[in-house]
Every structure is written in structure tokens, then in C-alpha cells.
């Protein structure tokens, strides 16, 4: 990995370089995605099945588009009991964490008879997109579905592309069974997002779509936003490690590589106050690369977006970390909790040498669907609130409104909205037939 001094120029160049990975920079694909969405809206199943044949090389019809209970049972047998038990443990941890996020509505009454409040209800339906092929991750099924179940969503629909044999990844189906998905359909790509957003003869429309996907999926979610709610426009995975001279270089190197193996656009960055640690981490990375199965992807990822930055002190490291606002942030310092208090922007923070990032990916419980590409400055991890909708409640007595009506009328009149003012005023003027 390249080793650089953390200067203002290098920091600025790094931020510009990382932002090039954003899905917002792939406008050349937007017209293709727009055509797919338009065709699915107008032709429904026919378009979805045609695109499935074209892109997934699979014949899907209305008779076999929905995954059957038999297929799910076969998938559970295929993955084996040991893996099922691990997924069930992970699901229990995820459920336990997200249950702590549940909130209830509230009411506040005043002596004048006014009542204000907030009603919170789950959305009726949610759609989860799950990639297929080499990018099929059962863990993402658990992370997307379980918060929706905890929120109380009545119908959860999953879409995932089939293989050329018409089958869906066994791990994906087993995870869907563990998480409690209600319906599963064999559809992928932008066409699957369009089907969830607008509905077809076979695939029902949903209220919200979550889940990762390739650039076509990301752009389809972006294009459908407004017709349907979405979680976010996810970019490539990223990890940032803040470390001092006390960090174990073996652990740091291993953790950086754990994200670099996702794809060539993934970023892995170490910011350290120790030049000695920087050199050792670089050496360990080379040692590990010879052993890892995805070494070619990792090598390209590190060549493209891998950095070791030597900071003058931890304050400078923290400042840069806050500017980058990484999806995953590990703190491997003598006092990680003290450093953590200075972090303002990060998707998830991992504290100490035994809190490696894959712990969050698979098992600890916090959601691994996290903001990327600097969006941790204003977005949060996927959570129960993402599947809730809030409704404001207002009830005023005559007494309460009488005390405020002239203020409201003045406000409305200053905005030129005389009908607004009149709606309040008529309640305090004599009506026809009244004195």
C-alpha cells in the first residue's frame, strides 16, 4: 500500500479521489435504467421475464417466478444444519439489538384542552433486494429483514436473481427462512427494483425498498425514489482504521484486507501516528495476500483506493476521519474509547483490537447496512425507524384555539393566504341564524 504523509494537500486529494466512487458519478447508465423501469411499468411481468432471460439467461414465467416452500426446504438442507444454527444465533443478536430501537407514540395534554402527539405505525410492506451470484450474502438478508420484522411490517417481499438453472442461491433462501421473509421472487437488476416500486401481475408493489446491489440496482432505486421509499444509494464498501504505536500490525493489516476483498472500488485506509507501524502493516498485507482467495480483487482495490497516512498526532487523524466519514471505522489505540468521543461521522465504530469489522458484518447485532461515500455525515445505519412512519396528532378545544386564533390569522394573512386565515376566523364569528 502507498504510504503518505497526512498533509492538507494529500487529505484534499484523497477526499476527491474517494468521491469518484459514488453512484452519482455513473450517469452514463441512467438512460439504460430509465428504459428498463419504463418497460416494467408498461409491460409488467412480460418485461421482467424478458430482462431475466437477457441478463440472467434463465426462463422465468408467472408459474415459477415465486420461490416455493419446497425450494426453501431444499436450500436449508443444502446449506446444512451447522450453518443454519450460526445464522439463527446471528439473527437472535440482530433482533435483540434492534428491539432496543423500538419507540412508541406519545400524547401531551394541556389544561386548556389542547392535545398534541405523535402516532407511530409500521409501513405495510417492504421489499428487500438481494444480489445473486458471487455477491450473494446471506448476512445481508438478515440485516435487511429483521429490523422490518421488529418494526412490525406485515408483508416482506424479497427479490433476488436466479441462476441459469432457475435456482436461487441456497444461502440466500436459507437466510430468508431464518429471518421470516413472506414472499420471494426470482428477479434481479433494475427490473426487480421497478417491479417492487410499481408492481406487476406477479410481483406486488411495496412501500419501501432496501438492500444492496450493483450500479444498475443503485440507479434504479434512485430513479424510483418518490414512488417508493428507499434506504439509500449505496456505494462501494470502505474501512478506515485509526491506530497508534500500540496497535498490532497483523490485526490492522487483516482488517484492512477484510473490506478490500469486496470489489475493486472498495477503499481501505489506515491513519496512524506511528511510521514504524505503517511499515509493518504494509509488510503484513503482502504476507496475507499470498494466502487469500480473492487476492486479485484485493490487489486492485488497494492499488486504486488503499492508503496508509502518517498523521502528526491523533487529533489530526480524528479530523481526517471525520471528513472522510467512513462506513466502517476501527479505533486501535491505547485508549480507543477516548478517541471515540471525538468521532462525529462514521457508519459504525469498532473499538479495540478484538472488535474487528467482520464482527459487525455477521454477528454482533448492530446493522451492517451503513452509509457510504461520506454520507455518514447525514445518514444513519439501517434501523427500525426506517420501517416506521410517524403521524402528527393535533386536537384543540375552543378555549385553546380562542387564545391563539388572532396570532394564526395574522401569520396566514402575512403569507397572503386569506383562506387559511378565514378557516380560523369563522369559528369565532356569528354563523347564519346565530346571534
TrEMBL record:
The entry's keywords: Amino-acid biosynthesis, Histidine biosynthesis, Metal-binding, NAD, Oxidoreductase, Zinc
Residues annotated as binding Zn(2+): 259, 262, 361, 420
A biological process term (GO) from this entry: L-histidine biosynthetic process
Organism: Candidatus Eisenbergiella merdipullorum
Names of the cofactor(s): Zn(2+)
This protein's encoding gene: hisD
KW Iron (keyword) present: no
GO molecular-function terms, A-Z: histidinol dehydrogenase activity; NAD binding; zinc ion binding
Listed SUPFAM superfamilies: ALDH-like
One cellular-component annotation, GO: cytosol
Enzyme class: oxidoreductase
Reactions accelerated catalytically: L-histidinol + 2 NAD(+) + H2O = L-histidine + 2 NADH + 3 H(+)
Gene3D superfamilies, sorted: 1.20.5.1300, Nitrogenase molybdenum iron protein domain (3.40.50.1980)
The protein, known as: Histidinol dehydrogenase
Lipid metabolism is among the record's keywords: no
Amino acid at each position: 500500500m502507498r504510504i503518505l504523509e497526512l498533509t492538507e494537500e494529500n487529505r484534499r486529494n484523497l477526499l476527491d479521489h474517494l468521491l469518484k466512487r459514488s453512484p452519482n458519478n455513473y450517469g452514463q447508465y441512467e438512460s439504460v435504467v430509465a428504459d428498463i423501469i419504463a418497460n416494467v411499468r408498461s409491460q409488467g411481468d412480460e418485461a421482467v421475464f424478458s430482462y431475466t432471460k437477457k441478463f440472467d439467461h434463465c426462463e422465468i414465467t408467472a408459474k415459477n417466478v415465486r420461490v416455493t416452500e419446497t425450494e426453501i426446504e431444499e436450500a436449508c438442507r443444502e446449506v446444512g444444519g451447522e450453518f443454519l444454527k450460526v445464522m439463527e444465533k446471528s439473527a437472535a443478536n440482530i433482533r435483540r439489538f434492534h428491539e432496543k430501537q423500538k419507540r412508541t407514540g406519545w400524547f401531551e395534554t394541556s389544561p386548556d384542552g389542547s392535545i398534541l402527539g405523535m402516532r407511530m405505525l409500521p409501513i405495510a410492506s417492504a421489499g428487500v433486494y438481494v444480489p445473486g451470484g458471487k455477491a450473494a450474502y446471506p448476512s445481508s438478508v438478515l440485516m435487511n429483514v429483521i429490523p422490518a420484522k421488529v418494526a412490525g411490517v406485515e408483508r416482506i417481499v424479497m427479490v433476488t436473481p436466479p441462476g441459469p438453472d432457475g435456482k436461487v442461491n441456497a444461502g440466500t433462501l436459507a437466510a430468508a427462512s431464518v429471518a421470516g421473509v413472506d414472499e420471494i421472487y426470482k428477479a434481479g437488476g433494475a427490473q426487480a427494483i421497478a417491479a417492487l416500486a410499481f408492481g406487476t401481475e406477479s410481483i406486488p408493489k411495496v412501500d419501501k425498498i432496501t438492500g444492496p446491489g450493483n450500479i444498475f440496482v443503485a440507479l434504479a432505486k434512485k430513479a424510483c425514489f418518490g414512488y417508493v421509499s428507499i434506504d439509500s444509494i449505496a456505494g462501494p464498501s470502505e474501512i478506515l482504521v485509526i491506530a497508534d504505536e500500540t496497535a498490532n500490525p497483523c490485526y490492522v493489516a487483516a482488517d484492512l484486507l477484510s473490506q478490500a476483498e469486496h470489489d475493486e472500488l472498495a477503499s481501505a485506509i489506515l491513519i496512524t501516528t506511528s511510521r514504524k507501524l505503517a511499515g509493518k502493516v504494509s509488510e503484513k498485507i503482502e504476507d496475507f495476500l499470498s494466502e487469500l482467495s480473492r487476492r486479485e480483487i484485493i490487489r486492485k482495490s488497494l492499488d486504486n483506493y488503499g492508503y496508509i497516512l502518517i498523521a502528526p498526532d491523533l487529533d489530526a487523524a480524528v479530523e481526517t476521519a471525520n471528513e472522510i466519514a467512513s462506513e466502517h471505522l476501527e479505533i486501535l489505540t491505547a485508549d480507543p474509547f477516548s478517541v471515540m468521543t471525538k468521532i462525529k461521522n462514521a457508519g459504525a465504530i469498532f473499538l479495540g483490537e478484538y472488535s474487528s469489522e467482520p464482527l459487525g458484518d455477521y454477528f454482533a447485532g448492530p446493522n451492517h447496512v451503513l452509509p457510504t461515500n461520506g454520507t455518514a455525515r447525514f445518514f444513519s445505519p439501517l434501523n427500525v425507524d426506517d420501517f416506521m412512519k410517524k403521524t402528527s396528532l393535533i386536537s384543540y378545544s375552543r378555549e385553546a384555539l380562542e387564545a391563539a386564533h388572532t396570532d394564526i390569522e395574522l401569520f396566514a394573512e402575512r403569507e397572503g393566504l386569506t383562506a387559511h386565515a378565514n378557516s380560523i376566523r369563522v369559528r369565532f364569528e356569528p354563523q347564519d341564524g346565530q346571534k
